[in-house]
Amino acid sequence: MAQHDLVIRGGTVIDGTGAPARTADVAIQGRRIVEVGRVAGSARREFDAAGALVAPGFVDIHTHYDGQATWGSRMAPSCHHGVTTAVMGNCGVGFAPVRPADHDLLIELMEGVEDIPGAALHEGLSWDWQSFPQYLDYLDKRRYDIDLAAQLPHAALRVFVMGERGANREPANADDVAAMQKLTAEAIRAGAIGFTSSRTLNHRSSKGAPTPSLKAERDELVAIARGLRDAGRGVLEFISDFEDLDAEFELLRAMVRESGRPMSISLAQGLSPHGWRKVLGRIEAANAEGLVMRGQVAPRPIGILLGLTTTLNPFTTRPSYMEIARLPLAERVLALKDPARRARIAAEETAPGFQRLFRMMDGGRKVWVLGDPPNYEPDPADSIAARAAAAGRDTWEFMLDVLVEEDGRQILFMPFANYAENNLDCCREMLLHANTVPGLGDGGAHVGTICDASFTTTLLTHWGRDRTRGELIDLPTLIRRQTHDTARAVDLTDRGTLEPGMKADVNVIDFANLRIRAPEMVRDLPAGGARLEQKAEGFLANVVSGEITYERGQATDALPGRLVR
Q1: Residue 212 carries which DSSP code?
Q2: Are 94 and 66 in contact (CB under 8 A)?
Q3: Most buried residue, 195, 342, 431, 444, by CB count within 10 Å?
Q4: Would you place residue 350 in the very low, low, confident or very high pLDDT band (cuts 50, 70, 90)?
Q5: What is the pLDDT of residues 505-515, one digit of tens each?
Q6: pTM exceeding 0.90
Q7: CATH T-level fold of 4-55+504-514+534-564
């Protein structure tokens, strides 16, 4: 009789601990790894990994599958990029706890903050819950291709307790504060992995209202932190504008002190090349004092995808484009080839609501053709402005030419974070810092403008193999960061390494041929909603809880993923 359920034979094992690569077999029994080394026993299924990289499944701690998890079983795009555990409910937005009267408000908030179509959410959400424990119970009955962990979102909690006062960002009174502390402890005890909040003006509802948690005061936030202390577990996740860095950071430090629990904070390079160092310096100082705080960082620029198929393009709001904006793609491409219309579009002004994005394009100097495979560290000499100048063309007319390429499916890339100096040196420094952890991929969110769930593949391909504009990073470090380190950052100690007794989440990768494909729009959301999908080539097998979920990119029938409580 077979001694094991699955043995992955003869691969180059990088086990997630940071140890060097070695040739070994990985034996799996049930949902656990039972042996790593030279496995003599037989198995019901053997997978030949000779010449391939064998690594732990990737743990993505920053996603927004809160809605998708209620109607779907496959968490795309993350499932295509080696992710075997995804943590959702980030940035303080989500769908529980909720009273029936507030369904629309939470949908408007998720639609605005995370660019998930409201029609899809209205169609897809069943609302078979009110409390957060009930939401977890609903998810617990479902089956997935990856594991999911949920966090308690501040905006939903605040509105649940305070109603319209909470939505309008009014101060919480003593009763409100006590209720939020109690409900936080209840959610964590029921299985929430943490609590999240947003304090940035960039997060607004689809109606333009700031997020309810924007101006939450110290007593409210400290009480919520005490809710984690009362439960004895859980993590904290925050995003902030840090307008008053000293005051804001002291508030976050107080939450870590009062809760005794770790915190992660979104960290990226903005328009200022070195502003992020100030926040990282505060994180360093907090850790030196024994407060566990981490920066969540990205391995590449965070940028908006612009095109005729995406939500936005460089000519959105220009009148002569808006006249044809709702035409089918083929008809729009034809209309954009008309010289008279092109001249009008190129000459027209951008409407006020689009001015910020227009300024970030910097006259086309911060816009590139994304390509297939995408280039996420593009050279300034290849920008749209530089290419137009080399051809002796007007930048905007040249951009129109590019947009109609590939039958109108060409995608442009406009970085707005981590690319102030036109290179990724800042990302390398952040990725290697002792007080950071990879994150910010936003899988399930920004479905028409951003597709960063492929961060995990970029981490390996760009930093482990392909980078030509700077130094690489060794694979054992990269894999440890995306497996062991991300798992421990959210207190998951049963996964993230290939060791006996650990959860059997494994990636088998043809590393030499691993590559990301260009994003494309698909219409598979409820109500026919569109979203950006992005796949990868080179994942030979993805294993979740001992079952192969994808083989050479093709889905199997296995859905072993569960809610992680």
Answers
A1: T
A2: yes
A3: 195
A4: confident
A5: 999 999 999 99
A6: yes
A7: Urease, subunit C; domain 1 (2.30.40)
